[in-house]
Amino acid sequence: MHHEYDRYLSRLACNRYYKRCxxxxxKLRSLHKTLTRKKDMATSEDTKLTRCLSTLDLTxxxxxxxxxxxxxxxxxxxxxxxxxxxxxxSFAIAAIASMFAGLCYAEFGARVPRAGSAYVYSYVTMxxxxxxxxxxxxxxxxxxxxxxxxxxxxxxxxxxFNYSMRNAFESVAHIDNAxxxxxxxxxxxxxxxxxxxALAFGAKESSRANNIFTFVNLLVVLFxxxxxxxxxxxxxxxxxxxxxxxxxKHGTGGFVPYGIAGIITGAATCFYGFIGxxxxxxxxxxxxxxxxxxPIAIVASLTIVFLAYFGVSTVLTIxxxxxxxxxxxxxxxxxxxxxxxxxxxxxTIGAICGLCASLLGAMFPLPRILYAMxxxxxxxxxxxxxxxxxxxxxxxxxxxxxxxxxxxAMFELDQLVxxxxxxxxxxxxxxxxxxxxxxxxESEAYEKKGDHDPRTxxxxxxxxxxxxxxxxxxxxxxQIVTYLVxxxxxxxxxxxxxxxxxxxxxxxxxxxxxxxLVVLVFVLLITLAFIYLQPTSGKKLTxxxxxxxxxxxxxxxxxxxxxxxxxxxTWLRFIIWMAIGLGIYFCYGIxxxxxxxxxxxxxATNGVIExxxxxxxxPRLT
Length: 622
Fold this sequence. Notes:
By secondary structure, the chain is an all-alpha fold. Helices cover 67% and strands 0% of the residues. The chain has helices spanning 2-35, 55-66, 70-83, 87-111, 118-125, 128-157, 164-172, 186-200, 203-229, 259-271, 290-319, 330-338, 341-363, 365-375, 394-410, 413-417, 421-439, 444-449, 457-463, 475-501, 503-507, 511-533, 550-564, 568-592, 594-600. The chain contains 25 helices and no strands. Helix 6 packs antiparallel against helix 14 and helix 6 (128-157) packs across helix 15.
């Protein structure tokens, strides 16, 4: 009897343990399903935004948001401090890297023509949690990008009036804090509100203003190239600065005074001069023909911006030796050297127009991101309400404008710029990864057959090199590619970290660093080869990224490497921002998601309303 009772207690304990384990497994599975639930674009509601933007409007938006004050500053600073006359090569490398990311955006813009850019793309392919992280990151980037541009406009205009604004603001409200600005910049705050109102009153009206600003900006760039060419002297690409054996801070002279390392360093800096074109991809619900217009606008805008940068940097370095450049205002200094003081004001007008176009381009996508996320229920619903008269998300636009204005008024330009790039590079990487995942997704031909691949280790191992000779992508091959892309991302992070942290050891040929790096690169190439060998979905698209998987893979590697180059404080601020976002998602978004609400309100079947969680979801214990 005693033994029977012990066996009963033992069986009861085992059943309770089994139940707890199954409950934990069920909770993990349900949490995974929640975080990876995807948006079905085929069942999405019609847009409430007005389709009024043409291909020309989108191209002007891309050029305006990208070709800002950088064209007036970047060429001078990079040529003097990093690359010398070889800055033209640095711009070419940066343009190629940006074009890779741009082509990935172009495919998604044609595939998913919705407002929200990388947010919507990742929602469709990666799932809700990844989409929220990307959307929250883009909000930060567009806010900081807008704030830095408007603060740059203030710091550019103020010297023209002998810093009268700064003196007046400091006398009224001086702030003694090293972490923020010494005075509240009311000019920057006011300009931000004006531009927010312009965006809130209609996309077409704001695009017309952007077209004007961009046209003037391009005319001034053309003016600089033509007038600078009149003083061109090819010998300036061969000059050598005066230096000693101990002090040669301007390099060795010639076309490549700082060596190959200087060109690469300059390319990393020049890359940020191309950030901004992705705002074109956020106009999917306002473009007249998004499948055609978005790819054309992205490629055309990046091409125009590269030609402008290439022409300006060529003229600048061929008209004046690279070591004599002014890093803050190279073109006014160039014309002052020529004795053309009148030309300084032409360049000033162009810089102001360029900044205004950049501000419009930076602020334009922000309310669209808020609208997309609010429409999906991941952030507060009131931020996505569309105004019945102007057909724009007015509350989201003004709330974003107020936040941008406060940041622009309270922080210095360098403090804002430090946070601009990390989210953009992360978004570029996610979009490129989504291109890979979607290109190898389960094909429609396989879905119709309803076949199932054997999940044996032998079959999976053979499938890595496609020894099974599958003609169409299957559910198994799609999952294999997803895992391979994840491994590729991890390998890129490891390689980027080693290269960024151990530059001197690599240049000195230290075996301790070289051997692990070579092994990681070899494994990365093998992983990429496995992805290449898998069958693709074969889905016909209006625009497709060429050379898949190699082109998106190179884009991911470049973007992650540039992220690894960012300083610790940038990563710390980014982590704090993401922590705030995670709190909003798990306390609000995960519960008010439109996908969850639809699942929780299923239509009645035979008069019985289905519950979102049924008893069948729990393991049956016997």
